[in-house]
Design a protein that fits this description.
This protein has no helices and eleven strands. The protein has 124 residues and is mainly beta. The strands form two sheets. Strands 2, 4, 5, 6, 9, 10 and 11 form a seven-stranded mixed beta sheet that branches. Strands 1-3-8-7 form a four-stranded antiparallel beta sheet, with no helix packed on it. It is globular and about 40 Å long. The relative contact order is 0.32.
């Protein structure tokens, strides 16, 4: 079992930056592909970014590419999402997720463990 705890969300103005963190517990973090998803009210859960285990290759949704950066620190067992140039349309609950595989995918159904979510609100 993998437990994930997110933090770092908040209320900011458009153009600001936030860094989300996801602290993991478990025995296999360094071998779990990890991802961030988000869900706005009334909308489906949306892929944001992902990072492989082992190779540490990264993947981004077109809507955030160039603004967001996903990273991981295996020694600290923590996943990060650096969000710059935030827009009102980025407002959502952000979830971190872990997969029992080393290669990331873009669909939430392929992830096995989820955090509780952290709210990000961007005002105009």
């Amino acid at each position: 079992q993998v437990q994930l705890v997110e933090s770092g969300g908040g209320l900011v103005q458009a153009g600001a930056s936030l860094r989300l963190s996801c602290a993991a517990s478990g025995r296999t973090f360094s071998r779990n592909a990890m991802a961030w998803f988000r869900q706005a009210p009334g909308k489906e859960r949306e892929f944001v970014a992902a990072i492989n285990a082992i190779t540490i290759w990264t993947y981004y949704a077109d809507s955030v590419k160039g603004r967001f950066t996903i990273s991981r620190d295996n020694a600290k067992m923590t996943l990060y999402l650096q969000m710059n140039s935030l827009k009102p349309e980025d407002t959502a609950v952000y979830y971190c997720a872990a997969r029992t595989a080393t290669v990331a995918v873009r669909t939430p159904e392929e992830y096995d463990y989820w955090g509780q979510g952290t709210q990000v609100t961007v005002s105009s």
